Amino acid sequence: MRKYVIMGVQGSGKGTQSALLADDLDLVHISVGDIFRWHVKHHTKLGAQVRRLVAAGELVGDDLVEDVVKDRLQLHDWNYGFIIDGFPRNRRQAEFFLESYDLDGVIHLDLPDDEVRRRVLARRLCSRCGMDYNLIAHRPEVEGRCDVCGGNLVTREDDTPDALARRLADYHSKIDPVVELFKRKEYVMTIDARADKATVQRAIRTRFNLPPYLPSDARLSG
């Protein structure tokens, strides 16, 4: 059983890299952001609370994140392990995690703030089906329209320059100390996240002695 934490500022590719690892290694990808987005989309009580915070330009509180993660991990559907994205968010949570779970490692995706701004402000979301786009790496065939359902592409409510500046400040004040704590425990491998997704994935696997990464087209041809 493998258990990993993946950390990195918004736009560093945590979701993409987690999905590649999860698919190949039969891990459960636990994304705090995806959990909250599901609740917002399905108009749950938690979703309404998150939507109010986002609309006000505020961040979801650490205690709420902690409760969501604990509930998710208690499902125990991760027979072969998990990779968790978006947690822990402070030193107390990190210490709890180290005491409660025998981690195999922490993947730290390092990305400069200037590149974060470039990537995040280019993101778009289909207002109908929820498909993610990035105008840098994944442009739709028809500008402003989803390739899947034809819905309008919109900017996420929290993808504004002011909101991003707040998130970056919050990230560095809270998460940098968490990364340092994990480093002292010798769990952390820092990966340069500026490269393309395949290069980053190969670097992760090399550093953690995992099976080599073969893109889906290479597997089919082999």
Automatic annotation (TrEMBL):
GO terms for molecular function: kinase activity. It is an enzyme of class 2 (transferase). It is found in: Cytoplasm. The gene is adk. It catalyses: AMP + ATP = 2 ADP. Residues 122-159 are annotated as: LID. This is Adenylate kinase. Consists of three domains, a large central CORE domain and two small peripheral domains, NMPbind and LID, which undergo movements during catalysis. The LID domain closes over the site of phosphoryl transfer upon ATP binding. Assembling and dissambling the active center during each catalytic cycle provides an effective means to prevent ATP hydrolysis. Some bacteria have evolved a zinc-coordinating structure that stabilizes the LID domain. Residues 123-158 form the Adenylate kinase active site lid domain. It comes from the Bacteria. It comes from Nonomuraea monospora.
